[in-house]
Design goal:
327 residues; alpha/beta; 6-stranded parallel sheet
């Protein structure tokens, strides 16, 4: 990070440094980065104050990724092992072994799945928000914002697998087609095509039971206005990408009183707080992968010097599925 962005980041906010790694200290491993996951939370680390731990000027931009160990001074990792962790925007990551998770791919589950359908910021976040927090039930009408993005894509498929009727919100005909086609949603709302609330009322006249929100802003208000009146509806706050450019002046929902009027609830969550259920999540998601019931296409950007460009793509809607950088 060369300087802190003001509003939308620009390419001039970032720079590239070359360093030489001379030795591997005891307890550390050197990982050749294979794939980095581009997630909206990265933007929040670029500010002085925000939702996540901030990065310092001159520091490497944080990002989760997966790679292979090429040198190790720790008995827990051998050369050739796959490792997952906060590898950050670099081609080689020198890391404390304790900060890494060894990944052992199994039949039908590839290493890249661990930053996709099984990734902590993607598939596990989707599962925790949908199941542990949102308590999705068969027959629920589930609305998902950012449905063509990485987390949203997972939520759509996991909700369908659990017997819900799913409506996805995305931008433009192509993305809406992606949501109803490859992902299998029952319907899609194009937020670029007019009044989201009116489209939602037509698609779910009895109201929605569960809203999984990745966007915030006006779309959150539209969902609140369409909660099932009979009570018991849940709103799960995963993220609010529409607000990340100005965290000092976040625009909250105007229609939050719908929660009281309709005996509904709204909860936010941090995925790591639900680590006790990761084993359950991984078992369910892995089975969906093996049986072909869950897919997360990758939108690949390479090489590492295009990392800032990929980060900007998150906010301009130029991708579908899981946006990744391959160094």
């Amino acid at each position: 990070m060369a300087k802190r962005p003001s509003g939308m980041p620009s390419l001039s906010d970032f720079g590239i440094e070359d360093e030489t790694i001379d030795q591997i200290p005891a307890g550390q491993v050197l990982v050749k980065v294979d794939t980095l996951s581009m997630d909206a939370w990265i933007r929040t680390t670029l500010d002085d104050a925000g939702m996540h731990e901030k990065g310092d000027l001159g520091s490497t931009i944080r990002a989760f990724g997966i790679g292979q160990v090429v040198a190790s001074s720790d008995p827990g990792f051998a050369v050739g092992d796959w490792a997952y962790g906060l590898l950050s925007a670099q081609t080689m990551a020198l890391m404390d072994a304790a900060a890494l998770t060894k990944v052992v791919p199994e039949q039908g589950v590839s290493p890249s799945d661990f930053i996709g359908l099984l990734g902590i910021t993607t598939g596990l976040t989707a599962w925790v928000g949908l199941v542990a927090v949102g308590e999705v039930q068969p027959g629920d009408v589930v609305l998902v914002s950012g449905a063509a993005g990485a987390v949203g894509s997972c939520v759509v498929q996991f909700a369908k697998a659990r017997g819900a009727r799913v409506i996805g919100i995305a931008g433009g005909p192509a993305k809406c087609g992606f949501v109803t086609g490859l992902l299998g949603a029952d319907a899609a709302i194009d937020y670029k095509a007019g009044d989201v609330g009116a489209q939602l009322t037509r698609l779910a006249p009895e109201g929605i039971d569960l809203f999984f929100d990745n966007v915030g802003g006006e779309i959150l208000d539209a969902a609140l206005d369409n909660l099932r009146p009979s009570g018991g509806a849940r709103v799960v706050i995963c993220g609010a990408i529409s607000q990340y450019q100005n965290l000092n002046d976040v625009r909250g929902p105007k229609l939050y009183l719908r929660l009281a009027e309709r005996n509904a609830s709204m909860r936010g969550f941090v995925v790591s707080h639900h680590a006790a259920r990761f084993g359950e999540a991984i078992k369910e998601i892995s089975q969906l992968i093996r049986t072909g019931k869950a897919h997360l296409p990758e939108h690949v950007v390479e090489p590492i010097d295009r990392f800032p460009e990929a980060l900007l793509m998150l906010f301009t809607g130029q991708h579908s599925g899981n946006l990744v950088v391959k160094p």
